[in-house]
Request: fold
Amino acid sequence: MHGFRRRRGLLVANFEALEAGLIADLVDQVRTMLSHRRAEAPDDPLTDLTGIQTAPSTPPEDPAIARLLPDFHRDDEQLSSGLRVLHEPDLIAAKDQAAVALLDSLPLGGGTVKLSEEVAQQWLSAINDVRLALGVRLDIREDDGEPDLDRPEMEGVGSQMFQAYGWLSAIQDSLVNALMD
Reply:
C-alpha cells in the first residue's frame, strides 16, 4: 500500500492481496464483537410492536467493546444507562454500516480501491474502530508510545498486533491527508 491520493475526484490506493485480506479480517473481527454485544440485548415485547431496538443497560464487560461503545454520560450512571438502552443499537448499526461499506469497496484479491468522499468517511470510521479495539488489547494509551509487549498475554501476538496497529494508523493518516487535499 503506497497511500491514498486524490485522482479525478476519488480517493485511490492500491492494496496487495495480503493487505486487503488483513483489513477484511480485522474489520470482520470488530463486526463479530459488536454482533455479540447486539445479541446481549434483552427481550423486549415493545420491540415487536414498535420496531425500536434496545440494548443492555450495562456497559460491555469486554474492554475493547466498551471502548467502541463508551458511556453516554460520564457523571450520571443512571442517565448513561437509559441512553445506552435507547441509542446503543443505532451506534452499533452505524459502525456495522461503515464496516460493510469498507468491505464492499475492498478488492479481497488485492487491487485498486477507488472511494468517493462518503465511502472514504466510512473507511475512516471502520479503520478507527479496529484501531481502538487493537489499542485496548495492546494497552496503548497514547499514539506516541509503544506498548509493553512483554506482558504474558501478549506472548507471540503482541508484536504482530502492534505492527497491524501501526500499519492501520498509516492507512488512516494517508486517507485523512488525501481527503484534506
User: Anything to note?
Assistant: Residues 5-180 form one domain. Residues 33 and 65 are 7 Å apart (CA to CA). The first strand starts at residue 5 and ends at 7. The chain has a mean pLDDT of 89.
